[in-house]
Amino acid sequence: MMAAGAAGLRESDATGRNALPIALIELYASIQGESTHAGRPCTFVRLAGCPLRCRWCDSAYTFVGGTKSSIGAIVAEVRALGLPLVEVTGGEPLAQKHAPALVAALADAGFEVLIETSGAFPLAHLDPRARVIADLKCPASQEAHRNLWDALAGLRAVDELKIVVADRADFDWALAQLPTRLAGLAATILWSAVHGEVAPADLASWLLETRAPGRLQLQLHKLLWPAATRGV
């Protein structure tokens, strides 16, 4: 699915890549709160910008602004924090044209790289060493028309599909997509409840009732730091 990575770049090419601009919202160390990597210490690189407006978005502060940085400077900050796992997130990180180069640079630097994306952008140009965590946008998000079905269906076994549901209708809709538009999906499926709208216990009951594939996930960072809205 994905093109060859950037490993083995000539020194001059790598220098040029390191100078590419990135609009950065925040960079911090925390505990990974979601995905199959939940609970692991992780450095988060949160990029600015997102063309989507999901009704339940909890990172609207990323939509505009950001601090101008460079790929080289970001890699240096990540290295200084000393954690082997790093996630590039947003907003929507792939809204920035140099985000794939950032992902490749982090992988070249020896980091285990995750990239969290909306499922509304192509993935074929990403470095194959990165593991993709892509959303399936359900109707209650008001952005279901943005789903890029070919990209989502092409997720690999090392990737993850995150399905965030706001109600039972969302759950039933998503379940219907798995054997149809997403038939043959290799990625791990993650089910998550919209915070404050669906009780995780209810979602767990739906999973048991329907024998749905995948696994339930909780937002661990919201359990650890319920009052924090940034830097977690």
Folded structure, characterized:
It is a single chain. Helix content is 26%, strand content 23%. It has helices at 11-18, 71-81, 99-108, 149-153, 168-177, 200-210, 220-224, and strands at residues 21-31, 41-47, 67-70, 85-89, 112-117, 131-136, 160-165, 188-193, 215-216. It has a nine-stranded mixed sheet with strand order 3-1-2-4-5-6-7-8-9. Strand 8 (188-193), helix 6 (200-210) and strand 9 form a beta-alpha-beta unit. Helix 2 (71-81) packs across helix 3. The protein starts with 10 loop residues before the first helix and ends in an 8-residue tail after the last helix.
Task: Give a quick rundown of the structure.
The protein is of the alpha/beta class and 232 residues long. The protein has helices spanning 11-18, 71-81, 99-108, 149-153, 168-177, 200-210, 220-224, and strands at 21-31, 41-47, 67-70, 85-89, 112-117, 131-136, 160-165, 188-193, 215-216.
SSE diagram, text form:
Blueprint: H1 11-18, E1 21-31, E2 41-47, E3 67-70, H2 71-81, E4 85-89, H3 99-108, E5 112-117, E6 131-136, H4 149-153, E7 160-165, H5 168-177, E8 188-193, H6 200-210, E9 215-216, H7 220-224
Parallel strand pairs: 2-4, 4-5, 5-6, 6-7, 7-8, 8-9
Antiparallel strand pairs: 1-2, 1-3
Helix pairs in contact: 2-3
